[in-house]
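Blinded run. Sample ID left blank on purpose so nobody reads anything into the name before looking at the predicted structure. Input follows.
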Amino acid sequence: MTSSAEHSMQSTEAHMELCTRSYTYTYTRSFVYSAFNENMAERSSSSESSSDSEVDRDFSYESYSDDNRDEAGQIMPYMYEPEVESDDDDGEHEIAGVDYDNEGRLNNINWCSCGECQIMPAVRESVCCKEINQVVQKMDNIEVDLNCITEHPGFYSVCLDQWVLETAYFQYRQQYGQGRHNATENQKNRHTAYRQMARWCWGFLGQNVRVPLPSCAVHKIREKYPSNEYRGFQEI
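Blinded prediction complete.
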């Protein structure tokens, strides 16, 4: 009887030990699996955060680069409108065949070949579109025979269209800061139109390079956006 009871107790203890081991194994496996999942989740979260940081860093770098490059296609601050005479003419493009010391160009339009030029206050402004190679090339790029650059279908769109000029002005000011707060809309439009004309015909110009705009184009721009006084180029 005693032997049977001892055997029963031993069996019960063995069963309890087996259950304990089974529970411990199950709990441990569950804990390890849970810890593994948590670790993977942390790594995934860390990877996503790292990826987000890289995207932010790349975007910031791209934004910074865009703000500081001066490639063709962007409006640059040195696309000048016809300037008032100055003593420093270094870097100004000369036009072959145009005698800038010849005051015979003043007070007449005998030098005009297109029929649209007007009398200008300075010799350097007294230039016809047909005297400027870059402008002539622009006229020759279309199949229609043009007598003046102002007849080019692109001239109105690029240099006279109010909404195009407004957008170009915003782009310029966004990149180079605010100008004169007291400038009128016509002043802003003229200022931008002169730059547009230079960009359209010359493309990309280096820093401090001035180009002569033809009298006919200047006249059309001023006719569209008039003023009581014209002072040549000024920051608007």
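Unblinding after everyone has recorded impressions. The helical segments are 2-68, 133-140, 153-160, 162-176, 185-202, 215-224.
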